[in-house]
Amino acid sequence: MSKSAATALELGLVNCHDCHLLVELEQARRHPHCPRCGAHLHARKPNSLARTWALVWAAIIFIVPANVLPMTVTTTLGAKQADTIMSGVIYFMQSGSWEIAAVIFIASVFVPFAKLCILIFLLCSVQFRWGWRPKDRTSLYRLTELVGRWSMVDIYVVTILVALVKLGAVAAIEAGPAAVYFAAVVVTTMFAAESFDPRLIWDVLEEDV
Q1: In the chain, pLDDT over 90 holds for what percent of residues?
Q2: Given phi > 0 = left and psi -120 to 50 = alpha, else beta, which region is 200?
Q3: Does the pLDDT at position 153 exceed 70?
Q4: Which residue of 50, 122, 140, 180 is surrounded by the most CB atoms within 10 Å?
Q5: Which fold has domain 46-207?
């Protein structure tokens, strides 16, 4: 593989992961803290693969009860109805609110599953030292970082409904047990994306030269 430009490490520089200040490697070895923000300096995120795998597996465990258990429990005139994420999507589709159903499905079902699949793909690509399309894999990582936080839309909807629908014995909406697990899925996938170091994708290519 031909190199088009020297890397920061080749130039003797270390990038701060918090404020992105470039610090000379020798200075970082003598004082391993960023002179601007005080963050710990390291050439690559420590134990990136192990930490990301642990968080991904935690998210996989959390995603099962998040989709099986009720997200909301609605009480109307004494009768209770529990709805999961998918049953809520189906309800909005049957009532003609296709736009709301699409937003909830994309944000609460498609995005979390897609993010987990992409993270697993990226982790495997680094561990098995794939050289396939590193720019596209880096773009996939940036995409997971960007859209991950929007998965909380379903939690926001539940919070608003719980706050607004409080009519005593007539009608009330309460958050179901799935809300906690779903929030855990979103948070763990966000931390997983943060702990993964996309520069490992390129390190494999440079080591194989």
Answers
A1: 24
A2: alpha
A3: no
A4: 122
A5: Butyryl-CoA Dehydrogenase, subunit A; domain 3 (1.20.140)
